Request: fold
Amino acid sequence: MKKYFYPLIDNPYRPKDIHQAIKVLKSSKITSGPITLEFQNKFSKKIKTNHSLLVNSGSSANLLAMQCLINPYRKKRLKQGDEILIPSLCWSTSLWPIIQSGLKPKFVDVEIQTLNLDLNDLRKKISKKTKGIMLVHVLGNCTNMDELMKIIKKFNLILIEDTCESLGTTYKKKYLGTFGEFSSFSFYSSHQISSGEGGMICCKYEEDFEIIKSLRAHGWSRGLKNEKIIAKNNKQLDKRFIFYNSGFNLRSTDIAASIGLSQFKDLDKFIKARTTNRKLILEIFKNKDKVNNSYNIIKENKNVNPSWFGLPILISKHLERDKIVSNLEKKGVETRPIISGNFLKQPSIKKYKLNKNQKMKNAEYINRKGFFIGLPTKPLGKNKVRKLAKIFEQSI
Ligand SMILES: Cc1ncc(COP(=O)(O)O)c(C=O)c1O
Reply:
Protein backbone atom coordinates (compact mmCIF):
# COMPACT_ATOMS: atom_id res chain seq x y z
CA MET A 1 0.00 0.00 0.00
CA LYS A 2 1.20 3.52 -0.84
CA LYS A 3 2.59 5.44 2.13
CA TYR A 4 1.31 9.00 2.14
CA PHE A 5 2.92 12.04 3.75
CA TYR A 6 -0.63 13.24 4.51
CA PRO A 7 -3.05 10.26 4.48
CA LEU A 8 -6.84 10.42 4.69
CA ILE A 9 -6.81 8.44 7.91
CA ASP A 10 -4.16 7.91 10.52
CA ASN A 11 -4.43 4.72 12.58
CA PRO A 12 -7.58 5.47 14.59
CA TYR A 13 -7.13 2.70 17.17
CA ARG A 14 -5.36 3.55 20.39
CA PRO A 15 -3.90 1.00 22.85
CA LYS A 16 -6.87 1.56 25.16
CA ASP A 17 -9.39 0.75 22.38
CA ILE A 18 -7.50 -2.43 21.55
CA HIS A 19 -7.33 -3.36 25.23
CA GLN A 20 -11.15 -3.19 25.47
CA ALA A 21 -11.50 -5.45 22.42
CA ILE A 22 -9.04 -8.00 23.86
CA LYS A 23 -11.00 -8.05 27.11
CA VAL A 24 -14.13 -9.00 25.16
CA LEU A 25 -12.26 -11.64 23.16
CA LYS A 26 -10.95 -13.22 26.35
CA SER A 27 -14.43 -13.29 27.89
CA SER A 28 -15.53 -15.69 25.11
CA LYS A 29 -18.83 -13.75 24.81
CA ILE A 30 -18.10 -11.89 21.62
CA THR A 31 -21.50 -11.65 19.97
CA SER A 32 -23.88 -8.76 20.62
CA GLY A 33 -24.29 -8.53 24.42
CA PRO A 34 -23.77 -6.29 27.47
CA ILE A 35 -21.19 -3.97 25.85
CA THR A 36 -23.54 -3.40 22.92
CA LEU A 37 -26.30 -2.42 25.38
CA GLU A 38 -23.94 -0.12 27.27
CA PHE A 39 -22.82 1.57 24.04
CA GLN A 40 -26.44 2.07 22.94
CA ASN A 41 -27.41 3.58 26.31
CA LYS A 42 -24.42 5.91 26.46
CA PHE A 43 -25.03 6.99 22.87
CA SER A 44 -28.70 7.83 23.55
CA LYS A 45 -27.80 9.71 26.70
CA LYS A 46 -25.09 11.85 25.12
CA ILE A 47 -26.79 12.87 21.90
CA LYS A 48 -30.20 13.01 23.62
CA THR A 49 -32.15 10.61 21.47
CA ASN A 50 -34.87 8.25 22.70
CA HIS A 51 -33.62 4.96 21.26
CA SER A 52 -30.32 3.70 19.80
CA LEU A 53 -29.53 0.33 18.30
CA LEU A 54 -26.05 -0.84 17.29
CA VAL A 55 -25.73 -2.32 13.81
CA ASN A 56 -22.86 -3.55 11.67
CA SER A 57 -22.68 -0.40 9.49
CA GLY A 58 -24.19 2.98 8.71
CA SER A 59 -25.59 1.43 5.53
CA SER A 60 -27.46 -1.15 7.63
CA ALA A 61 -28.87 1.68 9.73
CA ASN A 62 -30.24 3.38 6.59
CA LEU A 63 -31.68 0.07 5.38
CA LEU A 64 -33.43 -0.51 8.72
CA ALA A 65 -34.95 2.98 8.71
CA MET A 66 -36.44 2.48 5.24
CA GLN A 67 -37.58 -1.06 5.96
CA CYS A 68 -39.24 0.11 9.14
CA LEU A 69 -41.19 2.75 7.23
CA ILE A 70 -42.80 0.09 5.02
CA ASN A 71 -43.22 -2.55 7.74
CA PRO A 72 -46.76 -3.94 8.26
CA TYR A 73 -46.39 -3.58 12.03
CA ARG A 74 -46.08 0.20 11.60
CA LYS A 75 -49.40 1.98 12.02
CA LYS A 76 -48.57 4.68 9.47
CA ARG A 77 -46.64 2.71 6.90
CA LEU A 78 -45.49 3.97 3.54
CA LYS A 79 -46.67 2.23 0.41
CA GLN A 80 -44.98 1.23 -2.84
CA GLY A 81 -44.09 4.22 -4.99
CA ASP A 82 -44.28 6.81 -2.21
CA GLU A 83 -41.69 9.47 -2.81
CA ILE A 84 -38.61 10.18 -0.70
CA LEU A 85 -36.51 13.26 -1.45
CA ILE A 86 -32.75 12.89 -1.28
CA PRO A 87 -29.81 15.20 -2.10
CA SER A 88 -27.95 14.20 -5.26
CA LEU A 89 -24.71 14.62 -3.31
CA CYS A 90 -25.18 11.45 -1.30
CA TRP A 91 -23.60 8.11 -0.54
CA SER A 92 -24.62 4.93 -2.35
CA THR A 93 -26.36 3.46 0.68
CA SER A 94 -28.17 6.68 1.53
CA LEU A 95 -30.00 6.05 -1.72
CA TRP A 96 -30.37 2.32 -2.37
CA PRO A 97 -32.36 1.40 0.75
CA ILE A 98 -35.11 3.69 -0.60
CA ILE A 99 -35.30 1.64 -3.79
CA GLN A 100 -34.77 -1.67 -2.00
CA SER A 101 -37.85 -0.80 0.08
CA GLY A 102 -40.06 -0.16 -2.97
CA LEU A 103 -40.05 3.61 -2.50
CA LYS A 104 -39.22 6.21 -5.11
CA PRO A 105 -36.27 8.57 -4.73
CA LYS A 106 -36.49 12.11 -6.06
CA PHE A 107 -33.27 14.07 -6.22
CA VAL A 108 -32.70 17.54 -4.81
CA ASP A 109 -29.71 19.80 -5.42
CA VAL A 110 -27.32 21.04 -2.73
CA GLU A 111 -25.73 24.39 -1.90
CA ILE A 112 -22.19 25.03 -3.09
CA GLN A 113 -21.17 26.99 0.03
CA THR A 114 -22.22 24.31 2.56
CA LEU A 115 -22.41 21.14 0.38
CA ASN A 116 -25.74 20.48 2.10
CA LEU A 117 -29.36 20.37 0.95
CA ASP A 118 -30.62 23.38 -1.04
CA LEU A 119 -33.92 24.25 0.64
CA ASN A 120 -35.15 26.32 -2.32
CA ASP A 121 -34.78 23.34 -4.63
CA LEU A 122 -36.34 21.13 -1.95
CA ARG A 123 -39.47 23.31 -1.84
CA LYS A 124 -39.79 23.01 -5.65
CA LYS A 125 -39.50 19.23 -5.55
CA ILE A 126 -42.22 18.53 -2.97
CA SER A 127 -45.32 16.96 -4.53
CA LYS A 128 -48.45 15.20 -3.26
CA LYS A 129 -46.55 11.93 -3.46
CA THR A 130 -43.70 13.15 -1.22
CA LYS A 131 -43.75 11.37 2.10
CA GLY A 132 -40.27 11.86 3.47
CA ILE A 133 -36.76 13.23 3.21
CA MET A 134 -33.55 11.26 3.44
CA LEU A 135 -31.38 14.13 4.58
CA VAL A 136 -27.63 13.67 4.26
CA HIS A 137 -25.57 15.81 6.62
CA VAL A 138 -22.46 16.23 4.50
CA LEU A 139 -19.03 16.02 6.15
CA GLY A 140 -19.86 17.44 9.57
CA ASN A 141 -21.92 20.33 8.22
CA CYS A 142 -25.68 20.73 7.76
CA THR A 143 -28.39 22.78 6.11
CA ASN A 144 -30.51 25.42 7.89
CA MET A 145 -32.32 23.04 10.26
CA ASP A 146 -34.83 25.66 11.48
CA GLU A 147 -36.07 26.22 7.94
CA LEU A 148 -35.99 22.53 7.11
CA MET A 149 -38.08 21.63 10.17
CA LYS A 150 -40.66 24.26 9.14
CA ILE A 151 -40.96 22.53 5.74
CA ILE A 152 -41.18 19.10 7.39
CA LYS A 153 -43.99 20.33 9.62
CA LYS A 154 -45.87 22.18 6.90
CA PHE A 155 -45.97 19.19 4.54
CA ASN A 156 -46.17 16.56 7.28
CA LEU A 157 -43.06 14.73 6.05
CA ILE A 158 -41.00 12.01 7.70
CA LEU A 159 -37.39 13.01 8.27
CA ILE A 160 -34.60 10.46 8.17
CA GLU A 161 -31.18 11.93 8.93
CA ASP A 162 -28.18 10.21 7.42
CA THR A 163 -25.69 11.43 10.01
CA CYS A 164 -23.00 8.93 8.99
CA GLU A 165 -20.55 11.79 8.36
CA SER A 166 -21.58 14.12 11.17
CA LEU A 167 -21.48 12.48 14.60
CA GLY A 168 -21.01 15.21 17.22
CA THR A 169 -22.12 18.19 15.12
CA THR A 170 -24.73 20.40 16.78
CA TYR A 171 -27.16 22.90 15.29
CA LYS A 172 -28.11 25.52 17.89
CA LYS A 173 -26.71 23.14 20.51
CA LYS A 174 -28.92 20.22 19.37
CA TYR A 175 -27.10 17.17 18.02
CA LEU A 176 -27.64 16.25 14.37
CA GLY A 177 -29.46 12.94 14.32
CA THR A 178 -32.07 14.08 16.83
CA PHE A 179 -34.28 16.19 14.56
CA GLY A 180 -36.01 13.42 12.60
CA GLU A 181 -37.90 10.19 13.28
CA PHE A 182 -34.80 8.17 12.36
CA SER A 183 -31.08 8.79 12.08
CA SER A 184 -28.07 6.73 11.09
CA PHE A 185 -24.41 6.93 12.14
CA SER A 186 -21.32 5.21 10.77
CA PHE A 187 -18.26 4.05 12.66
CA TYR A 188 -16.27 3.12 9.58
CA SER A 189 -12.57 3.72 10.03
CA SER A 190 -12.36 7.18 8.47
CA HIS A 191 -15.24 8.69 10.44
CA GLN A 192 -15.45 10.74 13.67
CA ILE A 193 -15.12 7.56 15.74
CA SER A 194 -14.37 4.10 14.51
CA SER A 195 -15.02 0.47 15.35
CA GLY A 196 -13.63 -0.86 12.06
CA GLU A 197 -17.08 -1.39 10.62
CA GLY A 198 -20.13 -0.33 12.60
CA GLY A 199 -23.10 1.95 12.88
CA MET A 200 -25.99 3.12 15.02
CA ILE A 201 -29.62 3.68 14.19
CA CYS A 202 -31.57 6.05 16.42
CA CYS A 203 -35.30 6.65 16.47
CA LYS A 204 -37.84 8.78 18.23
CA TYR A 205 -40.74 6.38 18.77
CA GLU A 206 -40.92 3.12 20.69
CA GLU A 207 -43.14 1.54 18.00
CA ASP A 208 -40.31 1.98 15.48
CA PHE A 209 -37.68 0.84 17.95
CA GLU A 210 -39.50 -2.48 18.47
CA ILE A 211 -39.76 -2.99 14.71
CA ILE A 212 -36.08 -2.25 13.98
CA LYS A 213 -34.96 -4.44 16.91
CA SER A 214 -36.78 -7.35 15.33
CA LEU A 215 -35.70 -6.54 11.75
CA ARG A 216 -32.07 -6.30 12.88
CA ALA A 217 -32.09 -9.87 14.18
CA HIS A 218 -33.88 -12.25 11.80
CA GLY A 219 -37.37 -10.95 12.66
CA TRP A 220 -37.03 -12.63 16.04
CA SER A 221 -39.37 -11.86 18.94
CA ARG A 222 -36.39 -12.14 21.31
CA GLY A 223 -35.83 -9.01 23.38
CA LEU A 224 -39.04 -7.30 22.25
CA LYS A 225 -41.23 -5.58 24.81
CA ASN A 226 -44.13 -7.90 23.87
CA GLU A 227 -42.03 -11.06 23.78
CA LYS A 228 -44.16 -12.82 26.43
CA ILE A 229 -47.45 -11.85 24.80
CA ILE A 230 -46.19 -13.04 21.41
CA ALA A 231 -45.21 -16.37 23.00
CA LYS A 232 -48.64 -16.69 24.63
CA ASN A 233 -50.34 -16.15 21.27
CA ASN A 234 -48.15 -18.78 19.61
CA LYS A 235 -48.32 -21.69 22.03
CA GLN A 236 -47.66 -24.22 19.26
CA LEU A 237 -44.09 -22.81 18.91
CA ASP A 238 -40.98 -23.02 21.06
CA LYS A 239 -41.20 -19.62 22.74
CA ARG A 240 -37.45 -19.08 22.26
CA PHE A 241 -37.71 -19.32 18.48
CA ILE A 242 -40.57 -17.19 17.30
CA PHE A 243 -40.17 -15.15 14.13
CA TYR A 244 -42.54 -12.28 14.51
CA ASN A 245 -41.47 -10.14 11.57
CA SER A 246 -39.46 -10.31 8.36
CA GLY A 247 -35.79 -9.76 9.01
CA PHE A 248 -32.11 -9.45 8.31
CA ASN A 249 -29.07 -10.11 10.42
CA LEU A 250 -27.49 -6.67 10.82
CA ARG A 251 -26.19 -7.08 14.36
CA SER A 252 -22.68 -6.13 15.33
CA THR A 253 -20.49 -7.82 17.94
CA ASP A 254 -19.35 -6.87 21.43
CA ILE A 255 -15.81 -6.68 20.03
CA ALA A 256 -16.79 -3.83 17.70
CA ALA A 257 -19.03 -2.33 20.40
CA SER A 258 -16.13 -2.23 22.89
CA ILE A 259 -13.89 -0.35 20.41
CA GLY A 260 -16.74 1.96 19.40
CA LEU A 261 -17.65 2.72 23.01
CA SER A 262 -14.04 3.36 23.98
CA GLN A 263 -13.77 5.88 21.13
CA PHE A 264 -17.20 7.37 21.77
CA LYS A 265 -16.15 8.27 25.32
CA ASP A 266 -13.48 10.52 23.75
CA LEU A 267 -15.66 12.01 21.00
CA ASP A 268 -15.37 15.54 22.42
CA LYS A 269 -11.58 15.23 22.67
CA PHE A 270 -11.42 14.10 19.02
CA ILE A 271 -13.59 17.03 17.92
CA LYS A 272 -11.36 19.47 19.80
CA ALA A 273 -8.16 18.00 18.37
CA ARG A 274 -9.49 18.08 14.81
CA THR A 275 -10.71 21.66 15.28
CA THR A 276 -7.23 22.71 16.42
CA ASN A 277 -5.62 21.03 13.41
CA ARG A 278 -8.14 22.65 11.09
CA LYS A 279 -7.45 26.11 12.52
CA LEU A 280 -3.73 25.65 12.00
CA ILE A 281 -4.24 24.62 8.37
CA LEU A 282 -6.54 27.60 7.72
CA GLU A 283 -4.05 29.98 9.33
CA ILE A 284 -1.05 28.76 7.32
CA PHE A 285 -2.97 28.42 4.04
CA LYS A 286 -4.33 31.96 4.42
CA ASN A 287 -0.83 33.39 4.43
CA LYS A 288 0.04 31.85 1.07
CA ASP A 289 -1.69 34.01 -1.55
CA LYS A 290 -1.65 31.44 -4.34
CA VAL A 291 -3.07 28.74 -2.07
CA ASN A 292 -5.62 31.11 -0.58
CA ASN A 293 -6.84 32.21 -4.02
CA SER A 294 -7.01 28.74 -5.53
CA TYR A 295 -8.55 26.59 -2.80
CA ASN A 296 -11.79 27.36 -1.00
CA ILE A 297 -12.03 25.36 2.23
CA ILE A 298 -15.70 24.81 3.10
CA LYS A 299 -16.82 26.56 6.26
CA GLU A 300 -19.52 25.55 8.70
CA ASN A 301 -23.02 26.86 8.12
CA LYS A 302 -24.61 29.46 10.39
CA ASN A 303 -25.61 28.11 13.84
CA VAL A 304 -23.54 24.97 13.33
CA ASN A 305 -20.91 23.74 15.75
CA PRO A 306 -19.23 21.27 13.42
CA SER A 307 -17.55 17.93 13.99
CA TRP A 308 -15.19 17.54 11.03
CA PHE A 309 -13.28 14.45 10.01
CA GLY A 310 -11.98 15.89 6.77
CA LEU A 311 -11.32 19.16 5.04
CA PRO A 312 -13.68 19.59 2.07
CA ILE A 313 -12.18 21.87 -0.57
CA LEU A 314 -13.46 23.48 -3.79
CA ILE A 315 -10.85 24.66 -6.25
CA SER A 316 -11.23 27.91 -8.19
CA LYS A 317 -13.42 27.88 -11.29
CA HIS A 318 -10.59 28.15 -13.81
CA LEU A 319 -8.58 25.26 -12.34
CA GLU A 320 -8.77 21.63 -13.32
CA ARG A 321 -9.64 19.23 -10.50
CA ASP A 322 -8.17 16.06 -11.98
CA LYS A 323 -4.81 17.68 -12.56
CA ILE A 324 -4.61 19.11 -9.04
CA VAL A 325 -5.78 15.88 -7.40
CA SER A 326 -3.26 13.89 -9.41
CA ASN A 327 -0.44 16.29 -8.41
CA LEU A 328 -1.43 16.16 -4.74
CA GLU A 329 -1.52 12.35 -4.81
CA LYS A 330 1.90 12.21 -6.51
CA LYS A 331 3.33 14.46 -3.83
CA GLY A 332 1.94 12.34 -0.97
CA VAL A 333 -1.40 13.95 -0.11
CA GLU A 334 -4.25 11.45 -0.18
CA THR A 335 -7.54 12.79 -1.55
CA ARG A 336 -11.06 11.59 -2.27
CA PRO A 337 -14.23 13.03 -3.81
CA ILE A 338 -16.81 14.85 -1.69
CA ILE A 339 -18.94 11.86 -0.73
CA SER A 340 -19.19 10.31 -4.19
CA GLY A 341 -19.73 13.51 -6.14
CA ASN A 342 -23.03 14.00 -7.96
CA PHE A 343 -24.54 10.54 -7.49
CA LEU A 344 -26.66 10.95 -10.60
CA LYS A 345 -23.47 10.44 -12.62
CA GLN A 346 -22.92 6.93 -11.30
CA PRO A 347 -23.48 3.99 -13.67
CA SER A 348 -25.82 2.29 -11.18
CA ILE A 349 -28.23 5.22 -11.62
CA LYS A 350 -28.27 4.65 -15.37
CA LYS A 351 -28.81 0.92 -14.96
CA TYR A 352 -31.82 1.50 -12.70
CA LYS A 353 -33.09 4.30 -14.97
CA LEU A 354 -33.22 6.80 -12.13
CA ASN A 355 -31.86 9.81 -13.99
CA LYS A 356 -34.60 11.30 -16.05
CA ASN A 357 -32.45 14.11 -17.43
CA GLN A 358 -32.37 15.82 -14.10
CA LYS A 359 -29.78 18.57 -13.84
CA MET A 360 -28.20 19.16 -10.45
CA LYS A 361 -26.19 22.28 -11.18
CA ASN A 362 -24.51 22.66 -7.82
CA ALA A 363 -23.86 18.97 -7.17
CA GLU A 364 -22.35 18.87 -10.63
CA TYR A 365 -20.09 21.82 -9.81
CA ILE A 366 -18.98 20.11 -6.58
CA ASN A 367 -18.36 16.95 -8.60
CA ARG A 368 -16.08 18.91 -10.96
CA LYS A 369 -14.32 21.14 -8.46
CA GLY A 370 -14.40 19.38 -5.10
CA PHE A 371 -12.31 16.92 -3.12
CA PHE A 372 -11.38 16.40 0.48
CA ILE A 373 -8.35 15.56 2.57
CA GLY A 374 -8.22 14.01 6.03
CA LEU A 375 -8.14 15.74 9.39
CA PRO A 376 -6.32 13.68 12.01
CA THR A 377 -6.86 13.65 15.76
CA LYS A 378 -3.12 13.69 16.45
CA PRO A 379 -1.55 17.20 16.53
CA LEU A 380 -0.21 18.13 13.09
CA GLY A 381 2.41 20.69 14.06
CA LYS A 382 3.43 23.80 12.11
CA ASN A 383 6.19 22.17 10.06
CA LYS A 384 3.91 19.50 8.66
CA VAL A 385 1.22 22.03 7.78
CA ARG A 386 3.79 24.34 6.14
CA LYS A 387 4.91 21.41 3.98
CA LEU A 388 1.27 20.61 3.19
CA ALA A 389 0.70 24.22 2.10
CA LYS A 390 3.77 24.05 -0.12
CA ILE A 391 2.49 20.88 -1.79
CA PHE A 392 -0.88 22.55 -2.35
CA GLU A 393 0.90 25.53 -3.92
CA GLN A 394 3.04 23.33 -6.18
CA SER A 395 0.02 21.28 -7.27
CA ILE A 396 -1.87 24.15 -8.92
C1 LIG B 1 -23.38 9.87 3.99
C2 LIG B 1 -23.08 8.42 4.23
N1 LIG B 1 -24.10 7.56 4.46
C3 LIG B 1 -23.88 6.26 4.67
C4 LIG B 1 -22.60 5.73 4.70
C5 LIG B 1 -22.42 4.27 4.94
O1 LIG B 1 -21.77 4.00 6.14
P1 LIG B 1 -20.98 2.60 6.31
O2 LIG B 1 -19.72 2.72 5.57
O3 LIG B 1 -20.79 2.50 7.80
O4 LIG B 1 -21.87 1.55 5.80
C6 LIG B 1 -21.52 6.57 4.44
C7 LIG B 1 -20.16 6.00 4.41
O5 LIG B 1 -19.15 6.56 4.40
C8 LIG B 1 -21.75 7.94 4.20
O6 LIG B 1 -20.75 8.80 3.93
Q: What stands out?
A: The CA atoms of residues 195 and 268 lie 17 Å apart. DSSP finds 15 helices and 13 strands in the chain. The mean pLDDT is 97.
